[in-house]
Design goal:
It is globular and about 50 Å long. Helix 6 packs across helix 7. It has one domain. The chain has eleven helices and no strands. It is mainly α and 223 residues long. The longest helix has 25 residues.
């Protein structure tokens, strides 16, 4: 009988051990998991913004100490996490704006203003643009075309955030510039769209190419 109870106890302890292990690794028990051992993919799969933010912060530190391709890969992982935190899954929301580029004059306000109608975390989305820019700076040409669409959204979020900080809507904020593309983030957004030309909707790609000379004159670089 004692042997029977001993076996039962061992089985029970084993179940408790493996259940706890699964709890800590799969359910992301707050404060228990070692963030340094969690990959970006695992953090994304957790669906927990706090876990994603902690891993994001760790990746940024690691990327700052790296160079070249290694740094770029870390920044792109951080960008993925920032996207997860922001809640943006499809950058096509930008193309729902009634006007993107108007007559080549750089009127991109509508593209940014549409972000104010969402429930996205715009601070996290702004981080996406920063991380992608850092990746490109670390290893030019390393950013996939589709990621440049998310970069454009991140740059747009930066414009929206700056406008809010100034107590203005996006249109009022950009009207304070002689040309909207004089705003660094607005210009970066258009630049990101240019880098994403191969994956843009045909109508928008054509619009950008039709205004290529004007955009080049405003400092936009075409590969």
């Amino acid at each position: 009988m004692k042997s029977f109870f001993r076996v039962c106890l061992i089985i029970l302890l084993s179940i408790l051990y493996f259940s706890c292990e699964a709890f800590f690794t799969s359910n992301w028990f707050q404060g228990a998991a070692d963030i340094s051992n969690i990959t970006a993919e695992e953090a994304l799969n957790s669906g927990d913004p706090e876990i994603m933010q902690q891993v994001f912060d760790q990746l940024v530190i690691e990327a700052a100490d790296a160079t070249g391709t290694e740094a770029s890969e870390l920044y792109l992982q951080a960008a993925d996490l920032a996207l997860g935190i922001s809640g943006l899954s499809d950058p096509a929301i930008l193309f729902e704006a009634p006007e993107l580029l108007s007559g080549g004059d750089g009127s991109v306000g509508d593209m940014f203003a549409i972000l104010t109608e969402t429930n996205l975390d715009l601070d996290a989305l702004e981080d996406v643009g920063v991380m992608i820019a850092n990746a490109e700076g670390s290893d030019p040409g390393s950013v996939p075309g589709d990621m440049w669409l998310f970069a454009a959204a991140g740059n747009g979020a930066a414009v929206v955030n700056d406008a809010a900080d100034a107590g203005k809507n996006v249109t009022e904020f950009l009207d304070g510039y002689a040309d909207p593309l004089d705003n660094t983030d607005a210009k970066a957004a258009v630049q990101s769209l240019v880098y994403a030309l191969d994956v843009l909707p045909d109508d928008l790609a054509s619009e950008i190419l039709d205004n290529q000379a004007d955009l080049i004159g405003k400092g936009i670089i075409f590969p």
